[in-house]
Amino acid sequence: MRLLIVDDDTLILKSLSLTLSREEDIDIIGCATDGAEAIKICEEQSVDIVLMDIRMPGIDGISATKLVKQRYPNTRVMMLTTFDDKPNIQQALSAGADGYLARKSSSSATYSKRTGYHPACGTGTFKQRYCSTSIS
Asked: From 12, 95, 108, 116, which residue has the greatest number of CB atoms within 10 Å?
C-alpha cells in the first residue's frame, strides 16, 4: 500500500513515518506539512491512502480531503488528528474522508460512514495494527 502522511507537526510526521515504514506492506511515498503539498504529491504519484491531519496552515485537511477525493476518487483518506469532536468528524466525512482516527483515543478507534473495520484501513498489517475498532 502506498501511503502519504500529512501533518504540520514534524514530530508527528517523523514518528508516523518511522513506525509505519517498518511494516513490509506499507510504502511511505511522502510526507507533507499542509494540504497544498499533499495535493501536489497526489498529482505526481499514485497514492492508495492519505493519513490527513485537520488543522494545518494554508489548505487545511478538510479542504484538502475534498480536493483529493474529487480529483482522485480511488485514493482513500483517513483523517488522523487530535480533534475528536462531532463537528470535525462530520465535516471530514462530508468532505469525503473515508474514515476518522482520533490520535488521543485510548484505542485505535475509527469513525466511519459504514459498519465494520474501515475500508480506508485497507488490509494486512495496517488494518490489523491500526484499525482494530470501528465506531459508526
From this structure: 95
User: Exposed, middle or buried by CB within 10 Å (0-12, 13-18, 19+), for 105?
Assistant: middle
- Tens digits of per-residue pLDDT, 77-128? 999 877 667 788 888 889 999 988 876 654 444 444 443 344 444 444 444 4
What does the block give as the cell for 7?
501533518
DSSP 8-state secondary structure symbol assigned to residue 112: -
Q: What pLDDT score was predicted for residue 75? A: 96
**Angle at alpha carbon of residue 46, lines to 25 and 92, rounded to 5°:** 90
The β-bridge partners of 2 are: 27
Cα distances from 53 to residues 24, 25, 78, 115, 116, in angstroms, run 24, 22, 9, 23, 23
Model confidence, pTM: 0.77
